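We treat protein structure as text, and this decision shapes the records that our systems exchange. Such a record has a labelled line for the sequence and another for the backbone structure tokens. The record that follows is passed on verbatim for readers who wish to inspect the format:
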Amino acid sequence: MSAVPEVQPVRVVIVDDTADLRELLRFALEQHEFTVVAEAGDGREGISAVEEHAPDLVLLDLAMPVMDGFEALPRMRRACPRAKIVVLSGFDAGAMSTRAHDLGADGYLQKGASLSDTLRYVREVVDPPATLPPAPQLAVVPEPAASAPTAAPRTSRWPAWLDAVPFGVLRLSSSPDLVVRQCNAAAGSALGVAVALDEPLAATSGSLAALLAPYAAADSARLDLPAGGAVPLQVTLLRDGDDRVLVLIPRD
């Protein structure tokens, strides 16, 4: 009996200037047989990462400092012709997706797509079903229909699919009190309490606020919160503009 060939994980480079989005994409992908081999915050760094790692898949933001996605895309295509490149964009498809295709993109994914749609889509780009035509096709995941308003106010930097992820995410002000501006449903579940919006973090979790206090001015930090809420947590603090984004991932 011949041995069953081992399935190799899809190797991914994520290129996006928003650190919290890269962190969340990495977590989601690595739960589904993808391996993130590198991240980059602008197009120039992204080209270097693609040249170094020769990934199977590149997730490429369009709007970035230093070098945007449109400028970086054809250079990445030349650096690694076999890679699948999926553009991530906050813009409606339209002419944007056509231009991305002309420059070498294999797909165009709007950032408002749900997490499940994102994972399904990139999997199909990398390994298209046998029923699809053999010729390369640029597919677009459309912007989701408007949903009912939630308790947490949204800004353009709060992707809709964060409400569906299995880990907690909170957006905090940069003030010393770390006022909670937004949160997803999983944040309350992870902490074992209802999250108090527009209140200092200490009103929700005094232990978490105390843990973060020495790092309130830091660009990033990764800490462990012992069981005190629902479960022990790995806590990642990231800067996003003037705000802080808190990611709460349950630890085994």
